[in-house]
Amino acid sequence: MITLTVFGAGCIGCHLAGELLRYANPEQFTLNLIGRPNLKEDTNKYGLTISDYAGNNHNLSPKSFSVSTSPETLQNSDIIFLCVKSGQTEEAAKQILTYKPNTTVISMQNGVRNASRLRKLLPNANIVAGMVPYNVVALPNARFHKATEGHIYLEENVALNPIKNLLKQAFQPCWFSDLGSVQYSKLLLNLNNPINALSDLPLKQELETRKYRLQLAECIREGLEVYKAAGINTVKIGKVPVSWLPILLSAPDFLFKKLASAMLKIDPEARSSMWHDLQKKRVTEIDDLNGEIINLGQKHNITTPANSRIYQQIKQSEQLFQ
């Protein structure tokens, strides 16, 4: 029996758990979620429901998984899907070190440095980098809704062999590759998270508004410039190569809507995770997003005014509730 644990069962973590549960043979796998008290209450009452923008909807019985609020649950884990925010990586690593220091940890977090942080903090664990390119929205009654398209990427690692068939079924398709370029490409897409949060608009409406797209285009343009100086390559992880995005995003509204129809396949009410963080008065992941571009720019003597401006605006928003 292989025990899988989703540590940090928020929007992404719960959706991942639901996909795994759909295909996991209960005679081979058990699945635990570690999350907030309200998740335990809601799933006991409603089960766990995952849905998506294409109309798929699946409800999983609460008898098919367990939910805990305590990190002690980690001690039974064979493989941990780490889904906490980047700012919580060190604290999560301390808990893993206390309860299960020799396990396999799959980092499904935003940013490009969490896997390397975990390797330093958990020297006896097997760390696997992962990347989730899509947006998930938490809805009432423990429903977690995939609001945009995209497929999961995982680092090729022999530690995944015992669950590789499950991963391929649950995350159709699931790409196994060297994640360096993939994560840096995703980082450029994530530069929209703070812009969306500051706009206070749903993602679709924000992207349909040219003034916000121009801000994003400039942030991505700066990112591409510092990547070039740092020797970092990008790859195509969506319908459009990330290197084309500044030009596409700068197009007038009518042209953008024609050219970027795939980008706009977003549920009308979807918002970025950073918007949710600010609404709930939580510290955001801005240091691992725009902060990464700023730091790379400083290292290579390249100014990044657009990213710096957005960074400061988010920091000022955080100060209001600290």
Please give a handful of descriptors for the protein shown.
14 helices; 322 residues; alpha/beta; 2 domains; N-(1-d-carboxylethyl)-l-norvaline Dehydrogenase, domain 2; four-stranded mixed sheet
Strand content: 15-25%
**The CATH fourth-level homologous superfamily of the largest domain:** NAD(P)-binding Rossmann-like Domain
As residue ranges, the low-confidence spans are none
Instruction: Name the overall outline.
Output: globular
Radius of gyration: 19 Å
Write up what this structure looks like:
With 322 residues, this protein is an alpha/beta fold. The protein has two domains: 2-178, NAD(P)-binding Rossmann-like Domain (Rossmann fold, 3-Layer(aba) Sandwich); 182-319, N-(1-d-carboxylethyl)-l-norvaline Dehydrogenase, domain 2. Helices cover 43% and strands 16% of the residues. The chain has 14 helices and twelve strands. It has helices at 11-23, 37-46, 89-99, 114-121, 164-170, 180-190, 192-199, 203-207, 210-230, 245-249, 253-259, 273-279, 290-299, 305-319, and strands spanning 2-7, 29-34, 48-52, 57-60, 66-68, 79-82, 104-107, 126-131, 136-139, 143-146, 153-155, 175-177. An eight-stranded mixed sheet has the order 5-2-1-6-7-8-11-12, sandwiched between helices. Strand 7, helix 4 and strand 8 (126-131) form a beta-alpha-beta unit. Helix 7 packs across helix 12 (273-279) and helix 9 packs across helix 13 (290-299). The longest helix is centred in the last third of the chain and has 21 residues, at 210-230. The radius of gyration is 19 Å and the shape is globular. The model has no long low-confidence stretch (mean pLDDT 90).
